[in-house]
Amino acid sequence: MSKSKLEMLVDDQQFGVGNKSVDTGIMINDHNDAVDYLILEFNDRFEVYLNLYDENEPPYRNILTSGKSRSLEVAKKIAVRKLNKLAYS
Fold it and tell me: Residue 56's domain spans which residues?
């Protein structure tokens, strides 16, 4: 079984260095797919990572997107927009 792109990113020793806080979990998006999320808060920005990873059934997607902004809500919107574009259009 291969790792998701988000797992590979987190495995990098340099990833997220200097963050103030971390939030991670799984959400169900508007298309009824489970999406892993990771939110990093830094002094000057938020970084939101979304990973749609189908490991058990086709189409076996492994799509990682990110959004970065001074505002958490804007960073989320950017990441969701990118994920929707890659996964559903």
Answer: 5-88
